Amino acid sequence: MQWRGSGFVVLSWWYLVAGLAAIGVLTMGFYDVRWGGRIMAAAFGIGAVIRLIARPARKAGGLNVRSRALDVVILLVLGIGVLIASATVNVGSEGPSRTSVDRTSR
């Protein structure tokens, strides 16, 4: 199978990070916001580690956008931000439901 010159070789590790982030988004939508946020944060953390250790820089594929240090810092900040945001979101149903109708007020 000839993959040289295809997008798979060019972006290589980016597909792993994007795939994990997509799994995190789907988990947020269909299962649990907190677990989805953890998966997305892990994806960004893995991307930061890959970008940090990939030598030469072209081995990082699509993760190689700016300087190595800036790419790693941006990915880590995104991961930490998503982790904090998903951990502090209030997903409880303490208020009235939008779908229920209160018939006692008539």
What key phrases describe this protein's structure?
106 residues, mainly alpha
Describe this structure in words.
- The mean pLDDT is about 80.
- The radius of gyration is 20 Å and the shape is elongated.
- The chain is built from 4 helices and no strands.
- It starts with 6 loop residues before the first helix and ends in an 18-residue tail after the last helix.
- It is mainly alpha-helical and about 110 residues long.
- Helix 2 (about 15-30) runs antiparallel to helix 3 (about 35-55) and helix 3 packs antiparallel against helix 4.
- It has helices at about 5-10, 15-30, 35-55, 70-90.
Please write out the topology.
Elements: H1 7-11, H2 13-30, H3 33-53, H4 68-88
Helix pairs in contact: 2-3, 3-4
Instruction: Determine the number of helices (DSSP H or I, runs of at least 4 residues).
Output: 4
DSSP strand count:
0
Catalogue the unreliable spans.
none
How do the SSEs run, as a string of H and E? Answer: HHHH
CA-atom Rg in angstroms: 20 Å
- Give the N-to-C terminal Cα separation: 71 Å
Largest sheet: none
- Beta-strand percentage range: under 5%
Helix content: 55-70%
Q: Calculate the mean pLDDT score and round it.
A: 79
Gist of the model:
The radius of gyration is 20 Å and the shape is elongated.
